[in-house]
Amino acid sequence: MIFLITFLASASIIQLPFLSSLALDARLMIAIAFAAAAFWITEVIPIPMTALMVIILQGIFRIQPFHEGIAFVAHPVNTLLLAGFIIAGAMKKHGLDRRIGLKFISFMGEKTSRLILGVMIGTAILSMWISNTAATAIMLPIGIGILEKAKENPRGTNMGKAMVIGIAFIANVGGMGTPVGTPPVPITIGFLNDLAGINVTFGQWLVRAVPIVLILIPLIWKLMITIYEPEVKRIKGGTEEVKKELAEMGELSTEQRHVVILFVLALGLWLVDAVGPFILPFFSSGFIDTLSPLSPLADNWMYIASLLISLIFTLPKIGAIGWREAGSEIGWGVLILVGGGLALGSGLEKTGVIELIAYNMEIILMGAGLLLVVAAIGFVTAFSITLFSSLTATSSTFVPVAIELASDLGHDQLLLASVAGMAACFAFLLPANTPPNALVYQSKFFKTAEMTKAGLLATVISVAALIFMAMIYWEQLLAFFT
Length: 482
Prior knowledge:
Blueprint: H1 2-14, H2 24-42, H3 47-60, H4 66-71, H5 77-93, H6 96-106, H7 112-129, H8 132-150, H9 158-175, H10 184-196, H11 202-227, H12 240-249, H13 254-270, H14 272-279, H15 286-291, H16 301-314, H17 323-329, H18 332-350, H19 353-365, H20 370-388, H21 391-409, H22 413-423, H23 435-441, H24 448-481
């Protein structure tokens, strides 16, 4: 029924009178985007299959050649996610992910509010490097275990709501800290490269995003414990089980140390093109300059490094996880999803739909200062997640709009696109918005309205913080590098 209704609604969109002035390919692309959004929201077919549907329909209706559409599945930005999945698989195999989460909580003492903060910090750190869903799946049982120390059945309590909703919110926020954390980030980087010719390095994204994550962790934590003030102020033995499990784990094993070394190596490879400009002046050798990735590989080094990291982590005797083991940990569906999202944005851009949306926003924002434009992009993108119920669909639509709008109004394309990409991660309103939200909702600790209540305020606070950082911190950053 959902499939049939969506088909009929999509067919009706093509015939809408107020769209009659648009070319047929633009109307078809709007219909495809509508169908994709409906399927992503309802999950009537698997989410990655909806992404493939976009590519297939674009080929059938000649919106863009099929070979161009399917090529987005192998877009360079997917190498980032591939490396991220393999690193996460190695951490999971050797128990390093859970150890990291437990370690942060162990420092928090017995005060309930601080324990909630500890769980949030652990979630944020993990979600920067492994999928938001995996980070939530690891930290949720740890958080619930702490709550059960205070109350046999903590479901329905304020401290329960603050803990589990906070885990989901922070998982969404933490993912945007690195290019490997969550799909909207590589999608943003991909569109900047494809549509604006701007190459964003791993390090450049880190210095923009990590400070925002660090600001949002305490803000969202304070919001959660204020709205849902814990009934129990101190959980006796709250970290007892955590410390006991860490003690049972003992010191880092040889395998875990190996994973840590490889991870540091991976981070170093990703940051080569970021630190290179500061290091190269100390070398005068032409041979070093020739070998430097800053010379022939400058525009693609982050992606080449990602494949190299994937290779190193899976090499026999050298790596930390076998290829077959890694294969089961790689979210192949996510790679297809990102490819479909990029194809969706490309189709909207090629048919002029993005230009049309940007034009209408430009009319509204004509003569407005950069602050108002940034605020408009941030709030519209963040609240559109409720409509799309997909970080990929939201970022695939609004990052190209931000790039086009910045071009038309004469603003910094990198700034506006980054704001749109990060705002697309603020999925706080509904359980259906992201897998982490759905995962914590299944724990039955809260009702949908209770997430929406906190989520509405969290969205406003997060976008406001993003606007502040974009206008103040990023401007200072730009001045420093120029």
